[in-house]
Design a protein that fits this description.
The chain is an all-alpha fold. The protein has one domain. About 55% of the residues lie in helices and about 0% in strands. It is built from 14 helices and no strands. The longest helix is centred in the middle third of the chain and has 28 residues. It is globular.
Length: about 325
């Protein structure tokens, strides 16, 4: 019974929790946005067939997506990922240290709308900054790339592809988030707030609600949606994330951002679209030639990255940038 309750809780988190991109609310909005795009493009055939093409959803790559999703959900139920979500501990420890250094008792600040708004903006920017760099290092570090290559080996994109992640990628990302977000949260408590109130947390979450509601699921789909050159310098469009998944050499190492494009713009990894491009997805060599699917099964997707990472650590595997790894 306890296992069944855990499974039910996990399913609820994925499909009803507003923090999950797969929540029914976001999926329904995705369908509405897709319908607008379909009409704008002259209603090319049946909407259902256009929205859910058999060539995509019956593809072997999508079947592996489903298996990885179920596997990671089982690990989540077992509590594996929760063990490394130690942000609150980092916050408490650092805040205690700041109090000790000040040689004065901690005096919470009085509530202020201005400080709360500023803290909210800092929180949203910090979360997105962490996501940019967690993504960046998995592309650039040869011992980490094999774990993220599982995501990039997807040959078709569907909303479930966003969850096509190796458990090690999720664990490493959780550590980065816990340390950085936990530390920034402590500084906000010390400098701006007396507590992390519901207004701040709710508004920060609202930022991601807007992001998810505005078509985030199209980032992993066959539907091209560009925001145009001006806005793609500020926000990462679904089309820009398609570029990130492209096997074309000119698209390698571009558009690491999730919500904001400003990090890519700032660090020289931004690729702005100029009209729809024909893209082939998957991992490729340094010349942009597709590599045979390295993860045709769940077993290969979970086990092979450990072997490849060990080979990279021992210097037995070429630099992934030379082999086409980080794209």
């Amino acid at each position: 019974m306890e296992i069944l309750n855990s499974v039910h809780t996990e399913a609820t988190a994925y499909f009803w929790d507003m923090n999950s991109r797969l929540a029914v609310f976001y999926l329904a909005l995705t369908v509405l946005i897709a319908h607008v795009i379909w009409r704008a493009r002259g209603r090319p055939g049946s909407f259902v067939t256009w929205l859910l093409p058999a060539a995509v959803y019956r593809h072997k790559s999508n079947l592996v997506d489903i298996k990885i999703f179920i596997f990671n959900s089982a690990l989540s139920i077992a509590g594996l990922f929760a063990t490394l979500a130690f942000g609150p501990m980092v916050t408490a420890t650092l805040l205690d240290g700041l109090v000790s250094l000040s040689n004065a008792p901690y005096a919470p600040h009085a509530f202020s709308i201005g400080r709360s708004v500023l803290a909210t903006i800092i929180m949203i920017m910090t979360m997105d900054f962490c996501k940019y760099w967690a993504h960046y290092i998995h592309h650039e570090a040869r011992i980490l790339w094999p774990f993220h290559a599982v995501h990039h080996s997807a040959e078709v994109l569907t909303p479930l592809t966003a969850n096509r992640n190796h458990p090690m990628f999720l664990l490493i990302r959780a550590v980065i988030y816990s340390v950085v977000v936990g530390a920034v949260q402590a500084l906000m408590l010390w400098l701006l707030l007396g507590k992390i109130d519901l207004v701040t947390i709710g508004t920060a979450n609202a930022g991601y609600v807007i992001f998810n509601a505005a078509g985030a699921n199209l980032r992993h789909s066959h539907i091209w949606l560009s925001y145009g050159p001006r806005w793609e310098h500020i926000f990462i469009s679904p089309a820009q994330h398609h570029i990130h998944h492209s096997a074309d050499k000119k698209h390698f190492n571009k558009n690491y951002g999730e919500v904001f494009a400003i990090w890519d713009w700032m660090f020289g990894t931004l690729y702005v679209t100029d009209g729809q491009e024909f893209l082939i997805f998957g991992v490729a060599d340094g010349d942009g030639n597709l590599i045979e699917q390295p993860h045709p099964t769940l077993r290969a997707a979970i086990l092979h990255p450990f072997v490849e990472s060990w080979e990279a650590f021992r210097g037995l595997k070429p630099d992934p940038a030379a082999e086409g790894g980080p794209q």
